[in-house]
Amino acid sequence: MPIKFHEGSKTFHIYNKHLSYITCIMENGQMENLYYGKAIRDKEDFSYLHEEIMRSLMAVCVPEPGLLSMQYTKQEYPVYGTGDYRNPALTVRQENGSEIVDFKYVSHEIYGGKKKLAGLPATYTESDEEATSLDITLHDSVMDTDLVLTYSVYEDYPVITRSARLVQKGDQKIRLENVMSAAVEFPDMDYEMIHLSGAWARERYVKTRKLEMGTQAVQSLAGTGSSSEQNPFIALKRPHTTEDTGEVFGFSFVYSGNFLAQVEVSTYEMTRVMMGINPQGFSWELSRDEEFQTPEVVMVYSDKGLNGMSQAYHRLYCDRLMRGKWRNHARPILLNNWEATYFDFNEEKILNIAKKAKEVGVELFVLDDGWFGTRNDDYQGLGDWFVNKNKLPNGISGLSRKIEEMGLKFGLWVELEMVNKNSDCYRAHPDWALQIPGKNPVRSRNQLVLDFSRKDAVDFIFDSITEVLDYAEVEYLKWDMNRSLCDVYSAAAGYQGKVLYDYVLGVYDFLDRLLKRYPNLLIEGCSGGGGRFDAGMLYYTPQIWCSDNTDAINRTRIQYGTSFFYPVAAMGSHVSAVPNHQTGRVTSMHTRGVAAMSGTFGYELNPALLNAKEKAEIRAQLAQYREYQELIREGDYYRLSNPFQDNFAAWMVVSDDRSKALVSVIRLTAEANPPAAYVTLKGMEEDAFYREKTTGKVYPGAALMEAGILLPAAVSEYEAYQIELERV
Ligand code: DGJ
Question: What distance in Å separates the CA atoms of residue 630 and residue 597, rounded to the nearest whole number?
Answer without folding.
Answer: 11
